[in-house]
Design brief:
about 400 residues, alpha/beta
């Protein structure tokens, strides 16, 4: 392609660009207002006040109370905290936890760790679109069930779960409900009361905030204790000097995400659908993974038969396009995605998958360039595939 090298970043589920206004809000807390919020003198008050403000900004977007927001170092830490501390605190009530086979590894691996420590975990199946089956959830409930943890929206295939219904089932049975909302917070409207959510995890860098800061919403009355021991920070529930600039950035990013949500996600949905329709129409032997409509506004995930996902990514990169084959946390691994296997894809098709996640900066021209690039690359890779050759001979 005779154009100058362009960069089209379509891996916003892995991380996003920190918004300029977020960086601006953070800057003073590195060099001017650098006091430790735990100190008593006046200079530190500024840091303390700004953490309170960020808590208020985030709580407002969830319909929560500021004192129900606890800052962490990541969404992964928040997930670990929700599961391990609930398991510990409610052990006398029971040892059974229900989650799904398509959770992020922060939940999967924590669940597996709990299984080694005397807890029983039910791993729910999902349907072909990646949606949790509510009747199976109900059937899985036992007298010893203490927690249901279901992600709000899947990080790979973008499917949004029936969170309100799950929340109602949990509430009816007096079971705590946690949701990993790392992909959903800032992309979808969330009200913790309407959805009956008791705990919710999130991470700033998924919504144009900085990396290295997350939060766990813990509903008042949920009796889980600290996960990191040491000082009295975060109302004695999470020790460690607060990441003041990160927290300031998170507050600004949450406020910005709420303010721009409608317009931003409408635009993303429109371009996402344009991308999906063109790829499915113009590239044969391709399928869309995840639910066609109940999906994150910016997520498109395809499987191309007779194509190796890794080669596809490398060649897209040569065209200046950043995509991924699944979750950024597993891109070092050669196993096919656990999510794609859970929705019933055979190994060979799961291996040829591509996740493209848009941002508000992507244009229709960008999408056109990406589609042309995909067509060219897929055709090239298939031309070298003996499986494709055999398939074409058999079918023509």
């Amino acid at each position: 392609m005779g154009e100058e090298k362009r960069l089209i970043y379509l891996d916003n589920a892995a991380t996003t660009k920190t918004a300029p206004e977020v960086v601006e809000a953070m800057l003073p807390y590195f060099t001017e207002l650098y006091g430790n919020p735990s100190s008593v003198y006046n200079f530190s008050q500024k840091s303390k006040e700004t953490i309170t403000k960020a808590r208020e900004q985030i709580a407002a977007t969830l319909g929560a109370q500021p004192e129900e927001i606890y800052f962490t170092g990541s969404g992964t830490e928040a997930d670990n905290w929700a599961l391990k501390a609930t398991a510990e605190a409610y052990r006398s009530k029971g040892n059974h936890i229900i989650t799904t086979k398509i959770e992020h590894h922060a939940i999967l691996h924590t669940g597996q760790w709990l299984e080694k420590h005397g807890f029983e975990v039910t791993w729910l199946d999902v349907d072909e679109f990646g949606v949790v089956k509510l009747d199976e959830l109900k059937k899985a409930i036992r007298p010893t069930t203490i927690l249901i943890s279901v992600m709000f929206a899947n990080n790979e295939i973008g499917t949004v779960q029936p969170i309100q219904e799950i929340g109602e089932i949990a509430k009816e049975h007096g079971i705590l409900f946690h949701t990993d909302a790392v992909q959903a917070f800032g992309q979808l409207p969330i009200n913790v009361d309407e959805l009956h959510i008791d705990m919710l995890s999130s991470s700033a860098h998924k919504l144009n905030g900085p990396k290295g800061v997350g939060f766990l919403y813990i509903r008042k009355g949920v009796k889980i204790r600290s996960f990191v021991h040491g000082g009295a920070q975060e109302r004695k529930r999470r020790a460690g000097t607060e990441n003041v600039p990160g927290i300031v950035g998170y507050g600004a990013a949450a406020e910005r995400a709420a303010r721009t949500m409608k317009e931003r996600t409408d635009k993303e949905r429109e371009l996402r659908d344009y991308l999906i329709n063109r790829v499915l129409k113009e590239v044969p032997y391709t399928r869309l993974n995840g639910h066609r409509t109940k999906r994150l506004p910016n997520n498109a995930n395809f499987s191309f038969q007779f194509v190796e996902g890794e080669s596809l990514l490398i060649m897209l990169d040569m065209d200046g396009i950043c995509g991924s084959s699944g979750s950024a946390c597993t891109s070092g691994s050669l196993d096919p995605s656990h999510v794609l296997l859970a929705i019933g894809l055979p190994h060979e098709i799961a291996h040829g998958s591509l996740r493209l996640t848009l941002s508000e900066e992507i244009t229709r021209e960008d999408i056109d360039y990406v589609v042309e690039s995909i067509k060219k690359i897929v055709e090239h890779l298939r031309s070298m595939s003996p499986l494709y050759e055999d398939f074409m001979k058999r079918n023509h």
